[in-house]
Prior knowledge:
mainly alpha
Amino acid sequence: MTTDFTPISALGGGALIGLAAVALMAFHGRIAGMTGIMTGLLPPIAADWGWRAAFLLGAIGAPMLMVFAGGQAVGFDSPVPAPWLIVGGLIVGIGVYFGSGCTSGHGVCGIARLSPRSLAATLTFMAAAVATVFVVRHVLGGL
């Protein structure tokens, strides 16, 4: 499996993520943590569900608009079986709960605010990711 190096689109995407995070903080005083945003849309629905729904729709709709405007669709091909993806998603969800946030809230917004708690959380996320890749590739033989 190969990955093409796309610095221009990566830089543009990162800039848009940063702009969205700054705009959300400036206009609503809220952190752009996707888990927290989505949680407010699940029962019990938060009183401020309107901006949450708009933010989430923008996060989903913007890439779709780019494809329709003539951009290239980003393909998704996973060598990992679907049940493993589901289990992995559940494990991440548990980690988000115990970590009181996700990589977007802690990694993007928290580090930008120089939050020690977010720095510790992001370092923990990264260490867990490195350990997981090492174990899967070198201990379990690359399942």
